[in-house]
Design a protein that fits this description.
Length: 175
């Protein structure tokens, strides 16, 4: 269902009390989305359920960020990050995302059954920092060959984080 949506440059800004919530299966297909997710995405619930979560991925987002996200959550760890999403009408909205693996409670099994994500309004000054980093990461990905794009974007990010002496998660949470 993912259409080629042309970005309009129009921004939708979340309210302080808004929380976008979704659940996916282990392959990233939406199994639940709250009303705020539906409103921001511009799709109906029926159009969203069963679709890949990346239906709202904005083309300004570096692939290397999502590679890091998937590595983190597949390893059973929670991920924090800033994400620029696109609505059906081409407008965009920024979120601060927390994604956690879902395991079946009480089974004693650590097998991941899906993922749970809560997104909230990011602070504008942090978006300015992230936007600049993502622009550089995306440029590096676009200059690299398809097979080296993720590695090139990741290098830009690690070259920024390493001098701080922090791990990715600590860096993102300290902005």
């Amino acid at each position: 269902m993912k259409n080629k949506i042309t970005p309009t440059g129009k921004e939708i800004i979340m309210q302080d009390g808004d929380f976008i919530v979704s659940k996916t299966d282990i392959k990233g297909r939406l199994t639940y989305c709250n009303q705020i997710f539906i409103e921001f995405s511009g799709y109906s619930e029926q159009e969203l359920l069963g679709q890949q979560h990346n239906i709202v991925r904005h083309p300004d987002m570096p692939r290397s960020v999502f590679n890091l996200l998937w590595q983190t959550i597949k390893a059973g760890e929670e991920f924090f990050g800033y994400v620029k999403n696109i609505s059906r009408d081409g407008s965009f909205y920024w979120v601060f995302a927390n994604i956690t693996p879902s395991v079946e409670a009480g089974t004693g099994s650590e097998e991941i059954h899906g993922y749970f994500s809560v997104r909230r309004k990011p602070e504008p000054e942090k978006i300015k920092i992230i936007e600049s980093i993502y622009k550089d990461m995306l440029a590096a990905e676009q200059l690299a060959s398809t097979s080296d794009a993720i590695k090139a974007g990741t290098k830009v990010l690690t070259d920024i984080i390493n001098p701080t002496g922090k791990e990715y998660r600590e860096f993102i949470l300290s902005l």
